[in-house]
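Assemble and predict.
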Amino acid sequence: MAGPVDLQEYRGARRRLVETLQSQGIRDLSVLHAIDEVPRHLFVPTGVRHRAYEDSALPIGNGQTISQPSIHARYLELLKLTGKERILEIGTGSGYQTALLSRLASQVFSIERIAPLLEKAREVLQQMGANNISFMLGDGTLGWSQFAPFDAILVGAAAPEIPKAYIEQLAENGRLLIPLGDRDEQVLHLFTRHGGELEREDIAPVRFVPLVGKHSWPS
Ligand code: SAH
């Protein structure tokens, strides 16, 4: 059995990362506080652990990557979470963003299609004592209708268009963050649901790994 998480480890490196994010314009104190407290080094493979607090994406195995911390910070800041939300996350990946969400929202529902990634993420999050996360192994392009509606849906992989389940499963005034474009380049979009309409904001050009599934690209 793994022991409890030692939060003193890498504390200085984590603090410097928070300062870097502040200098890049991240202002939301609850987001900065979550980044200061979540041990990102536990979510990356041991071979790249020394780089865990650089502002860069890193390989996590199975051809996937953990996103850059500044991307996570930006994503979370855009959602303006109050702590009461129910969130659907597509693409658990390393589980790092899941850990941040579990501190910033009330309940997190996270779907991943690659079993070894999901198992590793689940193990680390359990070790951290996170108890408001439900996981599912499967195709996240279908959403998770059993627990809908969601106050926010975060898609951590890029799609050609919005899978329609996300629109159906979004609560009134709910927010959907999704990179849309082609396989190489995308734009991060923030959609807010008002009745049957989606208000759209274009946030920034981004590069994500592809969302693979029934309502996105084939594998
Ligand atoms: N936020 C994560 C991002 C990981 S990369 C992190 O920083 O660690 C995106 C993840 O989406 C990958 O793990 C990939 O396997 C997963 N993914 C891609 N298509 C998916 C789908 N249809 N359903 C669930 N997960 C998917």
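Residues 64-67, 90-91, 93-94, 96-97, 111-114, 117, 139-141, 156-157, 209, 211-213 surround S-adenosyl-L-homocysteine (CB under 6 Å).
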